[in-house]
Amino acid sequence: MIPQLNLRRVYLIARRDFLGYIKTWGFWISFLMPFVLFTVAFFAARLDINVDPVRYEAILDETGQHEMAIRDYDQAQRPELPIELPQGQMPANKNIYVSPPADNIDALKNYLTGQNKFEVDGKAVKLSALLHIYEGPSGVKADYWADNINNQRLKNVSNRYFRKIAEGKYLGAAGLSSDGLSEARAAAIKVNVFDPGKSGEGGQAVTFIDRIPNLVSVAATMLLWLTIFSGAYMLLTSMLEEKLNKLLEMMLSTTRLSEIMIGKLIGVAALTITAMLPYIVLMLAGAVFFLASPVGAAVLQAITPKLIFFFILFLALGYLFYGALFIAMGSLAESMQDAQTLTTPIMLVLSACVMVIPLSLNSPDSPLLTFATWFPLSAPFAAIARLHLDPPWWELLLSASFLFLMSLLVIWIAGRIFRYGILSGAGVKGVSDWFKRAVLRRKA
Amino acid sequence: MSEFPLSLRNISKSFAGKVAVEDVSFDVQPGEIIGFLGPNGAGKTTTIRMALGLIKPDSGLVELFGAAPSPHSFGRLAFLPEERGLYKKQTARESIAHMARLNGMKAKEAFPLADRLLDKYGLGDAKRKKNKDMSKGMAQKVQLLSAIAHDPEFYVLDEPFSGLDPVNQQVLENMVREIADRGRTIIFSTHVMEHAERLCDRIILMSRGRKVFDGSTDEALAQAPRRLVISSEDGRLKETVTAFAENMEVREDGSISVVLKRDADNHAILEKCVNSKIKLKRFEPKAASLHEAFVALVGRDEAEKMQEGVV
């Protein structure tokens, strides 16, 4: 069952597959992109770069009752927002209130379109938004005018302000006030969450920090899924490339089939790990950066040796299992369309495996989740998603052993399909034919 | 069996009930250049695949260097498959060096060797060119060089001439001669008989999955009917040669094209004409071609398939 391998040839196959991708521009762009985005975001935050332009907003209040009240209400919600632009300074906030540069709506529309401009700190600017409050036939009306209809900040602030006024009037009629309602809400009984299994300094009360291990398991499961999925897909395309390049037959005269398969598995595994490196580095950097905070400390505490051990184990087994399947599919396909058709059922199963994540959050004791731990296609993901429940070692090791045995079976079947797949055109027709010839060793 | 580069004993193979190869046996001895001939669909590629252990025969025995095909032969043989290809993003030198290294060569030997081979065969400027940017002919040369760079004992080339222009076919013929001069064993399949005629010591002819001929080129030519073109103003000529002819045809210029009987002899015909005092204007024995030999061996339809390269 265990094939004899020439490690040098395995290395050469793996190396070629690895370098085949590494030497492309596309790989390096994908590799460096997370660092570039992180750097840009970091410096943007440090330099307080505001990517949105400064917007100048005005309120034309013909009733004379609401303008300052709205501005005060807005500032109360955002205390850092200056009411007026400080002289000689660039604004730190994006939305600045200004006095209306004209006293009627028709004239102000020209400021909104940019036809007319007004001066702010010696610079000619246009008006971005205008709230027009006026007395209508059936009471006070408010119209919102803006050059960019997607920016509705002032409209939303005003709506909330007017709701609060209406609510205050309604409560006031009954001798009550909005502030009283807020105080009553603040004084309402809060339901505290406890975990009887928890012990430690904070007692048995559950806080957000207690959910961190759960979230770390989810993140690890997502990372595992992404790694296995991208690795298996790369194997498929790599296999297909060689199939279409008609190289395998020549290679088989000098290399064992098992060496090609294992070389490919190793090469693409190295590639997948390399592709994941930026994310791992950034995640670790983030955790170290936030180490001083309780959340950061809890994240690092949740990354236990047990999690790391089983993550690596299930990553290796899941990759072997799915990788062998995708290699086999790639060897059967004659085009990318063929490959997509052949892999659709596996892709659907692989996508369905993501369902173990919400299940592990909401119903960690679900029988379905336990079943998923033993079902080879979902075992890697379910096992990691359940890790925050601290299942016993024997259970995880047994699940891993079963997955290992199933992986060997899949590799064996994949090897047989692979051999027939790459030598296609030899008169085999249809999937049932492949199965009979490649797996059952029967004549079709 | 002894340790010949290749021995096949009664191998057969069917696919989906269709016989591809039936009861084929032959040995390839060290130093031979063998042309493996037959039209498309004759079973050449399937036989080669079985010989290399890429597919297993349904029955019969295959031995490569005295043992069943297995990794023991890696590095001792070169195989150029019928369907060609290269890694598109590799350069020419990387492709050659990669295959040489898979065949056991060290990197520090493989890359200089690749450079030397590319220089020698006119691809020196394309060393660092990616395979995807090469012309079809250049890419085919690179693949051939990749297959043979490690200079093994035994070369198996499946349709090496197909797809090459006449200039590159000549280059390949020269390459085959050089390899043969180093004492290597070569078997190559082709459906172009001229290549076999010029290069081979021995010819194996396949037709409809069976081996129909195995022998030297001269023996193959001996299978062809001998022809003679003869003419005279004497009206008795036709009657005189009838006894020697399998078939006769009077040509437009009045000469007679004679297909000789197997036991007929040109000297006997000439002697009879002289004795009969027939004054000959033309007496021209025609050299047999391999194509004619194959028509005799496999029939006109199969031979023409081979000539046209169609299935």
Descriptive notes:
- The complex is a heterodimer of chains A (444) and B (311).
- Chain A is of the alpha/beta class and 444 residues long.
- Chain A is 62% helix and 7% strand.
- Chain A has two domains: 260 residues, no CATH class; 128 residues, no CATH class.
- In chain A, strand 3 and strand 4 form a beta hairpin.
- In chain A, helix 1 crosses helix 9.
- Chain B has a six-stranded mixed β-sheet with strand order 5-6-7-3-8-9, sandwiched between helices.
- By secondary structure, chain B is an alpha/beta fold.
- In chain B, 41% of the residues are buried.
- Chain B is elongated and about 75 Å long.
- Chain B has eleven helices and 13 strands.
- In chain B, helix 2 packs parallel to helix 4.
- Chains A and B meet through helix 1, helix 7 and helix 8 of A and strand 5, helix 2 and helix 4 of B.
Name its key features.
heterodimer; A: 444 residues; alpha/beta; four-stranded mixed β-sheet; B: 311 residues; Rossmann fold; Alpha-Beta Plaits; 2 domains; six-stranded mixed β-sheet; four-stranded antiparallel β-sheet; 11 helices; 13 strands
Under CATH, the topology of the largest domain in chain B can be stated as Rossmann fold
Shape of chain B: elongated
Q: Give the spatial strand order of the biggest sheet of chain A.
A: 2-1-5-6
Share of helix of chain A, binned:
55-70%
Q: What share of the residues of chain B lie within helices?
A: 25-40%
- Radius of gyration of chain A in whole Å, from Cα? 32 Å
What oligomeric arrangement do these chains adopt?
Answer: heterodimer
Count of the domains of chain B:
2
Architecture of the largest domain in chain B in CATH? 3-Layer(aba) Sandwich
- The geometry of chain A reads as elongated
Could you name the ranges of chain B where pLDDT drops below 50 across 5 or more consecutive residues? Answer: none
What would a concise description of this structure say?
The complex is a heterodimer of chains A (444) and B (311). Chain A is of the alpha/beta class.
